[in-house]
Automatic annotation (TrEMBL):
NCBIfam families registered for this protein in UniProt: amt (TIGR00836)
Organism name: Ktedonosporobacter rubrisoli
Protein name per UniProt: Ammonium transporter
Main subcellular localisation: membrane
Keywords: Ammonia transport, Membrane, Transmembrane, Transmembrane helix, Transport
Length: 422
C-alpha cells in the first residue's frame, strides 16, 4: 500500500555499518542546520523590517522541499536512469526505500539514511536563491517557484551529476558535494531571478543594503561553517579516510577565503570588515565543496585564496558595473564561487586521495579540466535559462509585492510579525 511506509525489504544486518550510518545521520542533521543558518546569514543583511520574512522563507523551503523530496524528488534524482537525463519513478513516495542499502550509491548504510542526507542538499539549494530577491518577492509566488524549481532545475542537474547513468556522471565530471549541483545552479538561478523580478524600489547602484544585524550575519556564517563539515565530509557517505580529508580541506579553504576577504576589505575601506570576513568564509566553503573529496590540504589553501579573490571582485563588478539588484550577491558568492571550485577541481584533483575520482590537470590528466568546463557551462545555461522561463511563466500571478507593501516591509505586510520591538 502507498501509505504503508517505506519497505525495509530483505537485507542483511551484516551489510550495515553502524559507524557509517551514524556519521551520515549526524551529517544530515548538520546540513539541515545550514538552511536556517542561511536565514540568519541573509536575515542579518536585510533591513530591519524584512528580517522575519527572510528567516521565514528559509523555514518555508525546509518544509516544502522535505515533502517534495519524499514524494517525487528522490526518485527523479536517484531512480532508474532514463536516457542519462532523469531518474524514473521507481522510488515514487519512497517505494522500496528502506533499511536495505542501495549498492549503487552507499552500500554500507540504509537507503533511507542516504535519502534523508540527500534531502538536505535539495532543501538548501532554493534557500540560497532567496537572497537575490529579498524584500520584494510575493509569498504565494515563492511557494510555487520553490516547488517548480526543485523539480525542474535541481532534480535533473543532480541526476546528471550524481545519478547512476547521469550523462555528466558518465563523462567523469567531479562534484564531490555539490559545487555544480547546489551552488552553480542556485547562484545562476539567483542571477536570473534578480533580472526577472527586478530591482528594489530603494535600490541605488553601488550602494550596499543597510544591514540590520551584523551579529546575525556572523552567527549565520559560523553555523554554516559548522554545518558544512556535514555537507562535505558527510558526502563520503561513511566514516572513512575520504571523509577525514574532506573535513580538513573544508576548514582550510574557508579559513583561507575568510582571510582573503578580510585583507581585501581592509585595503578597500581601510577597516577589516567583520561581514566581509564572514562572507569570505562562506565563499571559501562554496569553492571547496566540489573539490573536497579529491584535493589535498595545501591545494585547498590555493582554492580558498583564488575563490576569495574572484568572488570579491565579482561582487564589486555586479554592484558597480551593472544595474542588476542581486541583493545579497547570490551570484557572486555561490554562482562564481561554485564555478571557481568546480574548475579548480579539474586542476588539483588527485586519484591517490580518492580512488573513485580522477587526476586533474596538475597530475597528468588535462582532459579532466575540460570535463569540468563542460559540466560548469551546462549547469550555468540550464539553471539560468529555465529559472528565467519559470519566473516569466509565474509573472501573471505577480512576482513581487505592491509598492506599499515593499515600503512597509514584508515582516508586517505579509506575516504581521515584527522582528524587533525597540
Amino acid at each position: 500500500m502507498l501509505l504503508a511506509g517505506a519497505s525495509s525489504g530483505a537485507y542483511s544486518t551484516k551489510a550495515i555499518s553502524t559507524g557509517d550510518t551514524a556519521w551520515v545521520l549526524i551529517s544530515a542533521a548538520l546540513v539541515m542546520l545550514m538552511t536556517p543558518a542561511v536565514g540568519f546569514f541573509y536575515g542579518g543583511m536585510v533591513t530591519s523590517k524584512n528580517v522575519v520574512s527572510v528567516i521565514k522563507q528559509s523555514l518555508l523551503i525546509l518544509g516544502i522541499v522535505s515533502i517534495q523530496w519524499i514524494i517525487l524528488g528522490y526518485s527523479l534524482v536517484f531512480g532508474n536512469d532514463i536516457g542519462g537525463i532523469i531518474g524514473g519513478l521507481n522510488f515514487f513516495g519512497l517505494s522500496g526505500v528502506g533499511y536495505a542499502p542501495n549498492p549503487n550509491y552507499a552500500g554500507t548504510i540504509p537507503q533511507l539514511a542516504f535519502m534523508i542526507f540527500q534531502a538536505m542538499f535539495a532543501i538548501i539549494s532554493p534557500a540560497l536563491i532567496i537572497g537575490a530577491f529579498v524584500e520584494r518577492i510575493r509569498f504565494r509566488t515563492l511557494v510555487l517557484f520553490v516547488i517548480l524549481w526543485t523539480t525542474l532545475v535541481y532534480d535533473p542537474i543532480a541526476h546528471w551529476v550524481w545519478g547512476t547513468g547521469g550523462w555528466l556522471h558518465n563523462l567523469g565530471a567531479l562534484d564531490f558535494a555539490g559545487g555544480t549541483v547546489v551552488h552553480i545552479s542556485a547562484g545562476f538561478s539567483g542571477l536570473a531571478a534578480a533580472v526577472v523580478v527586478g530591482r528594489r524600489r530603494t535600490y541605488q547602484k553601488g550602494q550596499p543594503i543597510p544591514s540590520n544585524n551584523v551579529p546575525f550575519v556572523l552567527l549565520g556564517a559560523a553555523l554554516l561553517w559548522f554545518g558544512w563539515f556535514g555537507f562535505n565530509a558527510g558526502s563520503a557517505l561513511g566514516a572513512s579516510p575520504v571523509a577525514v580529508n574532506a573535513f580538513v580541506v573544508t576548514n582550510t579553504a574557508a579559513a583561507a577565503a575568510a582571510l582573503t576577504w578580510m585583507v581585501l576589505s581592509w585595503a578597500e575601506h581601510k577597516k577589516p570588515s567583520a561581514m566581509a570576513t564572514a562572507t569570505g568564509a562562506v565563499c571559501g566553503l562554496v569553492a571547496i565543496t566540489p573539490a573536497s573529496g579529491f584535493v589535498s590540504p595545501v591545494a585547498s589553501i590555493a582554492i580558498g585564496i583564488i575563490a576569495g579573490l574572484v568572488t570579491y571582485l565579482m561582487l564589486l563588478f555586479r554592484s558597480k558595473k551593472t544595474s542588476i539588484d542581486d541583493t545579497l550577491d547570490v551570484w557572486a558568492a555561490h554562482g562564481m564561487g561554485g564555478v571557481v571550485g568546480a574548475l579548480l577541481t579539474g586542476i588539483f584533483a588527485e586519484k591517490i586521495i580518492n580512488s573513485a575520482g580522477h587526476n586533474g590537470l596538475l597530475f597528468g590528466n588535462p582532459a579532466q579540466f575540460w570535463t569540468q568546463i563542460l559540466a560548469v557551462a551546462v549547469t550555468i545555461v540550464y539553471s539560468f535559462g529555465l529559472t528565467f522561463i519559470l519566473l516569466k511563466l509565474l509573472s501573471p500571478l505577480g512576482l513581487r509585492v505592491s509598492s506599499k507593501e515593499e515600503a512597509q516591509g514584508l515582516d508586517m505586510a505579509v506575516h504581521g510579525e515584527e522582528g524587533y520591538r525597540l
